[in-house]
Structures are given as structure tokens and as C-alpha cells.
Design brief:
Layout lengths: L8 E7 L2 E7 L6 E3 L8 E7 L7 E7 L3 E7 L7 E2 L20 E7 L8 E6 L2 E5 L7 E2 L1 H4 L4 H5 L12 E6 L7 E5 L3 E5 L7 E2 L20 E7 L2 E9 L2 E6 L5 E2 L13 E6 L7 E5 L17 E4 L7 E3 L17 E3 L7 E4 L5 E4 L7 E4 L5 E8 L1
Antiparallel strand pairs: 1-2, 1-28, 2-3, 4-5, 5-6, 6-7, 8-9, 9-10, 10-11, 12-13, 13-14, 14-15, 16-17, 17-18, 18-19, 20-21, 21-22, 22-23, 24-25, 25-26, 26-27
């Protein structure tokens, strides 16, 4: 049975040409799009702090400031740039060092660490702020780790717009226990707040590497940890959909149960907030030429309600043909209502949502720039 709530839902949308806020009424029926924020600048991620439900951080790459982070303390009315944005140390004269291209992922730290945040970058770097995003320091245990270049593949080509650190996940039981996902690298785990790291890729395919079951060098697209079952992780990978029970320590390819005609290649993955067995994915065409569009131009989400044993197609309300777009790794999310609302945004600038867990989709906004990410803000 659906539950009523007076709280409102907003979607924080990051695009190639700025950010937007799409706000609903308490019933999630009527939606209103804001004016653009930082219009013309690349925004990769925009996230509400769930600990105060007021502070928002935005990862942007501006024409004159370069890669940086902006902060709003009043739910997006006013913005201020970080005084010390994430950056790699300047290399000594005659040496070649890392240069940050863009901040890609923002994640609040543990619920007990008010004002603390993590950021992931391209090239792959991990940064932490203790002051609500005003100043950032590199996490030396990763950025200066002697294995970093080996883990990430160094300067070899990564994703089309640069290899990224993404999917920064904090164990809700322990602020010291965390996971990261990296394109050109894989999934890694730390139990001491980033001082040391271990690869966590056993069982995950890497078809582009000649070594079977390599320890690192994988390409996860999105990794999620369920807050009610923190020892269960899901992963949408370059080479399929996976689930891990942490005690077992090995990824199981649950995407093998997807329809063979559709396959299990895609970017995003969204979890049901109360049911660890329920997961949504959005497949794309992963054939040999990798068009990165919906298969056959017929987009659909797929949901499993038994941890990947079976999958159900959900395309009611979506275009039935000639829809040649896809959904990026940060551009699918869920609210906490009952029934759960699922939202995704496309490379063609559309935002879609459902108030009934995918049974029917409605287009909430059109004609936005290419969308990089969508996050839910409930307030």
C-alpha cells in the first residue's frame, strides 16, 4: 500500500551545459524545472547532504576556473566555489605529475562525520573535505600509493573522456570501511579510511584483458552497496551485471539471467531503499561496435526482485522505437517513498520517472543538455 508524505522530492540534474533542479509536489505528480545553474559549464555531479538536507555540493569544470567544487548552504539559492578545490600536488621541476582534469563523483562521508565529503576525479584520484567542501586534501593512501599507476593502467587510454574514480561507498556501520570503483582499475576496498587498499575483483570478467580473472585492471561502470545489507554489493560493469556477498568475496554474474537479445551491458544501477533483493538497471547496446544506445532503439529498464535470479522488462510509457539514447552511470536513482520512485535521464536531455517502481514511466522534462547524473533530494 502506498504511503502518503508531505515531504517533497527534487531531482538534482548535472549536464554538459550546467545543472538544473526538477522539483515535485508531495504526490510526485507535478514537476517544475528550475533555471539553469552555471549555464554553459560542464557539471558532472550534484548531491544533497543527507545529514542536513540543506547543503548541496556540485562538481563542475568551468571555462575559467577549471575543475572545481561549488557549495550551496541554502538548497541551491546561492553558490560559492571551494577555497581549495581538489588537486594533485604540483610536480617537482623536471618531473611529470598528475593533473586533475575534472571532479567526477561526490559522496558524503559517514553519517557520524558531519561536514565531511569525498570526491573522485579523472584521472583517478580520491580527495576528502572536512569542512563541507570548502577545502580538499588528497587521500595519500590512494593518490600516492606506489601501486596506483599499476592499478589504474597509468597513462593508457581509459574511458572516452578520461578514466574516472566513481562509486565512493561508505559502510554505514563503520566510517573506516569504504569501497571505490574505477574505470581502468576495478573495485577496491579499504578498512582504514583510505590508508591502504586491496583489489576486490575476483570473479568479475575483463574481456579486454588477455589474463583470465585478473586481480585489477577492470572497468566497473557503477557500484552500489545496500544500506540495510552493507555486505551485499551490486555492480554494473563493462562486462556484465554482478552481485557480491562480501563474506564470499567473489562477484557472481547475475546479468547472465538477462534476455540474451538485450544482454547485460550498461552504465547505471539503482537499488530499492528497503529491499536488498530489488535492483534496476538500464541496458545499452553492447555489441561489437558498442553504439552506446538503447538496444534496437527500444529503451527499457529491467528490474530484479530476487537478487538477479530473474529480470523483468519495464518499458510501459517509454518510446517503442527510434529512441537512440542511453543513460550514463550516475543518471539513474531512486527515492525512498512507498511505492519507490525511480528516475533516469538520457544522453538526449530527457528526464523520466515512475511513481510505481517502474510499472509506468512518464517524461518529466525534455530538451535539456546531455545529462551526466541525476540524484534525488528529499526535503
Amino acid at each position: 500500500m502506498a504511503t502518503k508524505s508531505k515531504a517533497r522530492v527534487a531531482l538534482l540534474i548535472a549536464t554538459r551545459k550546467g545543472a538544473f533542479m526538477l522539483s515535485s509536489d508531495s504526490l510526485r505528480r507535478d514537476w517544475k524545472l528550475s533555471a539553469p545553474i552555471m549555464l554553459g559549464n560542464i557539471v558532472h555531479h550534484i548531491v544533497l547532504d543527507p545529514r542536513d538536507r540543506r547543503t548541496i555540493l556540485m562538481a563542475a569544470r568551468t571555462g575559467h576556473l577549471g575543475p572545481t567544487v561549488f557549495r550551496s548552504a541554502d538548497f541551491g539559492k546561492k553558490w560559492k566555489e571551494a577555497e581549495k578545490p581538489p588537486a594533485f600536488p604540483k610536480a617537482e621541476e623536471g618531473q611529470k605529475g598528475l593533473v586533475l582534469d575534472h571532479v567526477f563523483w561526490l559522496a558524503p562521508a559517514h553519517a557520524s562525520e558531519a561536514g565531511a565529503w569525498y570526491a573522485g576525479s579523472s584521472p583517478q584520484g580520491l580527495f576528502r573535505s572536512e569542512d563541507e567542501g570548502t577545502s580538499w586534501e588528497g587521500v595519500a593512501g590512494f593518490n600516492q600509493n606506489p601501486m596506483r599507476e599499476t592499478w589504474t593502467g597509468g597513462e593508457r587510454d581509459g574511458t572516452p573522456d578520461g578514466p574516472k574514480m566513481h562509486s565512493i561507498l561508505i559502510d554505514p556501520r563503520d566510517p573506516n570501511h569504504m569501497y571505490i570503483g574505477m574505470s581502468s582499475g576495478g573495485v577496491f576496498e579499504s578498512r582504514n579510511k583510505g590508508v591502504s587498499w586491496k583489489p576486490l575483483n575476483q570473479g568479475c570478467a575483463a574481456d579486454f584483458i588477455p589474463i583470465p580473472d585478473p586481480e585489477y585492471g577492470h572497468d566497473p561502470h557503477c557500484v552500489r552497496l545496500h544500506p540495510l545489507m552493507p555486505d551485499r554489493l551490486y555492480q554494473q560493469n563493462h562486462c556484465g551485471i554482478y552481485r557480491m556477498e562480501r563474506a564470499e568475496g567473489r562477484w557472481i554474474r547475475i546479468g547472465k539471467n538477462m534476455p540474451k537479445k538485450v544482454g547485460d551491458i550498461g552504465f547505471p544501477l539503482a537499488l530499492h531503499p528497503r529491499d536488498p533483493d530489488t535492483v534496476w538497471v538500464f541496458p545499452m547496446d553492447g555489441t561489437a561496435v558498442w553504439p552506446r544506445t538503447s538496444p534496437e532503439g527500444k529503451p527499457a529498464a529491467y528490474v530484479t526482485r530476487n537478487a538477479g535470479k530473474t529480470w523483468k522488462r519495464q518499458d510501459n510509457g517509454l518510446p517503442s522505437s527510434q529512441a537512440w539514447w542511453t543513460v550514463k552511470r550516475q543518471a539513474m536513482t531512486a527515492d525512498t517513498r512507498d511505492p519507490v520512485g525511480i528516475y533516469f535521464a538520457t544522453t538526449s536531455g530527457e528526464v523520466w520517472g515512475t511513481r510505481n517502481e517502474g510499472e509506468r514511466w512518464t517524461c518529466l522534462a525534455r530538451h535539456l543538455p546531455h545529462v551526466y547524473s541525476v540524484e534525488v533530494a528529499e526535503f
